[in-house]
Write a structure and sequence with these properties.
Elements: E1 7-8, E2 11-15, H1 26-44, H2 57-66, H3 92-122, H4 127-133
Antiparallel strand pairs: 1-2
Bound molecules: flavin-adenine dinucleotide.
Length: 138
């Protein structure tokens, strides 16, 4: 029903977020809404926007919605939605730790790209905005 931008194939420009899109759960529904909000905010300002990489949990969640599947089921986000970390023989816990570390790194790079593309268009963020973007404790 949805195209790669999570818009209805039958009504381009009408986006679905949350449970109705095929995610499941509070966090996933809010995350889906957040991503689509960011996407539409970029679109109306003429900025390019890509969903987070497939190695992040957000990207894995979007991948689940995009992947054609005759037996599609709404789903919480799961480690199986992101690619395994290749070439290492690890137990389950260590595999997940490695996936999580890679996800955080790739999410950080994606987020920096989003911030930079916004800065290019609207000028560097104000001090207050920069403070909001910094990670507490750093
Ligand atoms: C009994 C139960 C227990 C659950 N427990 C958990 C849990 O423990 N943890 C968890 O993560 N998830 C849980 N879930 C799933 C979670 O509730 C949903 O995944 C999540 O709330 C979906 O959020 P959403 O914003 O996409 O949709 P919703 O929360 O369903 O919000 C959609 C809103 O749109 C409104 N609406 C519908 N039609 C219209 C209309 N035509 N015009 C205007 N408004 C409209 C509805 O009234 C509703 O307020 C549970 C679900 C149920 C049913």
């Amino acid at each position: 029903m949805l195209d790669d931008d999570l818009a209805l194939r039958s009504r381009p420009g009408v986006y679905l977020a949350g449970q109705i899109s095929g995610v499941e759960g509070y966090v996933e529904s809010a995350a889906c809404g957040m991503l689509l909000g960011m996407k539409v905010a970029h679109e109306v300002r003429g900025l390019a926007f890509s969903f987070p990489p497939a190695t992040t949990m957000l990207g894995g969640m979007v991948g689940h919605l995009r992947e054609p599947n005759d037996d599609f089921q709404p789903s919480n986000v799961m480690f199986s939605m992101v690619p395994a970390v290749e070439g290492r023989s690890l137990n389950k816990r260590a595999r997940r730790d490695a996936q999580s570390a890679r996800a955080l790194q790739d999410l950080g790079a994606w987020l920096s790209g989003v911030v930079e593309s916004n800065d290019e268009r609207i000028g560097p963020a104000r001090t207050a905005d920069r403070r909001l973007r910094s990670i507490p404790g750093e």
